[in-house]
Amino acid sequence: MIIEGTEPFFFPGNGKKEVVLLLHGFAGNTAELLPLGNFLKAQGYTVFAPRLPGHGTTAEDMLRTKAEDWLDAVRDAYAVLKGFAQEIVVVGASMGGSLALLLAAEKQVKGIVALSAPIFIAKEQGISALPPKEMLMPSDFTPEMERNLENVPPAANLIYTKIPLLSVYDLLDVVERTKNCLPQITAPALIIHGNADTMAAVESARYIVNNIGSSQKEIVLLDGAGHLLPLMEGRENIFKKIVTFLDKL
Questions:
Q1: Is 76 a known active-site residue?
Q2: Active-site residue 197, yes or no?
Q3: List 55, 94, 204, 214, catalytic entry
Q4: Which of 24, 55, 193, 227 is catalytic?
Q5: Residue pair 231/152 in contact by the 8 Å Cβ criterion
Q6: What pLDDT does residue 18 have?
Q7: Rg for the chain (alpha carbons), in Å?
Q8: Catalytic residue among 55, 167, 170, 197
Q9: Is 193 a catalytic residue?
Q10: Is 20 within 8 Å of 249 (Cβ atoms)?
Q11: Domains observed in the chain
Q12: The pLDDT of residue 17
């Protein structure tokens, strides 16, 4: 059963601007992107945010999905949008930013915005202590801290209380694929990252900008900002930066 408020959302725009494909992150859900989606809609953009397989339901569902399933869902969403729009921009947060970059390496997109996209997992996450994959069982989970953010859509706080350790390896698979695909990307790119991100190390943003094949690229590092940029206080300033970038495409 899908958690109420984590369904895919679609907002039609004014028909004069690009279609924006919004991608949420690992173990997150579409509600994390709802404030950004509403902001873009108000600017006239058409917005579609799909729900990645195994997300917005149960941790057990996540265990039954793999990195390729998440990427296939992104490819499917792109194909749907191409049915009625020639120009698509892809915007992703956290692992969604990684998936946005992977999509841009495969398909024609007009622009990319990656928010807190991981290339290097922050040391605070203890990835170095992750047991070897061959030693893990489907019953191996790691507890996840509850999220109690204020002034966000209610479902944005309804994250899983545990994460399958095997799924962490699929996240790392996405990260490694992203790292390898960067030279193939040519679309204009905006990379935004918080200097205080304890999930995706800020070095990730610098690596992306230094290695992406795009000739038009911009990096924005936010002092004191953490990982959940679309939900942070003062997020409207980030949304404005995104719209400024999109309006110039």
A1: no
A2: yes
A3: 94
A4: 227
A5: yes
A6: 87
A7: 17
A8: 197
A9: no
A10: no
A11: 9-247 (3.40.50.1820)
A12: 86
